[in-house]
Amino acid sequence: MSTGAIVWLRQDLRLLDNPALAAAAKLGGPIVPVYILCDAEEREFPAGGASRWWLHRSLAALGDELRSQGSQLSLLRGPALECLREAVARTGARAVFWNRRYEPAAVARDIEVKTQLRADGLVAESFNGSLLREPWQRGRTGIPLVDAGMRQLWATGWMHNRVRMIVASFLVKNLRIHWLAGARWFWDTLVDADLAANTLNWQWVAGCGADAAPYFRIFNPRTQSGKFDPAGDYIRRWVPELARLDAPHVHAPLAAYQAI
User: Fold this and answer.
1) Cys bridge to 2: 29, 155, 177, 179, which one at CB 3.0-4.6 A?
2) 90, 58 Cβ separation under 8 angstroms
3) 124: phi then psi, degrees, rounded to nearest 5
4) Residues linked to residue 125 through DSSP beta bridges, in sequence order
5) Domain boundaries, position 30
6) Antiparallel, parallel or unpaired: β 123-127 and 31-37
7) Sign of the alpha-carbon dihedral angle for 11, 130, 175, 180
């Protein structure tokens, strides 16, 4: 029988749109929100002065919001695993949930925490709470041509060069994510991955490599799909939820919905 869950808050100091918090609520029982400060686990990148100022006020605001809901935020200091084990012992919680971070130090720490908590007999799960990178990787951004390309890549290990440029532009210019994140994902998923071509192509799109495209050049996915996939066959093949939409609506389903 569930005795509640600990929600380990990190860069997600909010109650709405919080997958870890939603998982704890679904489990049932008391929810114990905790925030853990441990500069040592951030290695060479602990929070700076401005970030700490912002964090202090964000935690205060979250604490007020939790109190208005009849809950309370626990502020802990020290190694994450040690603090979480102490919180489990104090509350009797049988599960620990958190939203993922993607910095190398945080990833390594989270893997160890999850492994150890599960070895303790606890339910330990992490979730995607950023709503950027993972939907981008799995083809669930809501942009038809981008999603089609990323799903083709995931399913086949290959993607047409035109679509590679478009999804790269979307990641770097629209989502403002570093080109290295995209290059690493392509390196991991392309069967024809070539180090020089992959790196230079991403730099070209980002506008930072040798003979790169101008930094202000941005591929418009809607314009590109209308030009290079005018009938929408490519999109409908890889994004089957849009299979019933004809062109031009398949290129911009939100506009089609608004027109109904």
Assistant:
1) 29
2) no
3) -130, 115
4) 97
5) 5-127
6) unpaired
7) positive
Q: What is the largest CA-CA distance in the chain?
A: 62
- 113 plus 142 within the same structural domain: no
156-184 pLDDT per residue, tens: 999 999 999 999 999 999 988 899 989 99
From CA 256, how far away is CA 254, in angstroms rounded? Answer: 5
pTM of the model: 0.59
Residue with tokens 């990641």: 171
Residue 1: what pLDDT? 46
Using the structure block, give the residue that is written with the tokens 């084990």: 85
CATH number at residue 243: 1.10.579.10
In contact, 82 and 109? CB cutoff 8 Å: no
- Pairing outcome for strands 74-77 and 31-37: parallel
Could you give phi then psi for residue 4, rounded to 5 degrees? 100, 180
Burial of 250 per CB tally in 10 Å (0-12, 13-18, 19+) = buried
Nearest alpha carbon to residue 35 among 86, 88, 80: 80
Instruction: Report, as ranges of residue numbers, the positions in the chain whose pLDDT lies below 50.
Output: 1
Question: Do residues 126 and 225 touch, judged by C-beta distance below 8 A?
Answer: no
Integer Rg of the chain from CA: 22
The order of strands in the sheet holding 95-99 is 74-77, 31-37, 5-9, 95-99, 123-127
Q: Are 138 and 108 within one domain?
A: no
Question: Domains in the chain: how many in total?
Answer: 2
Measured in whole angstroms, the distance separating CA 26 from the mean position of its chain's CA atoms is 21
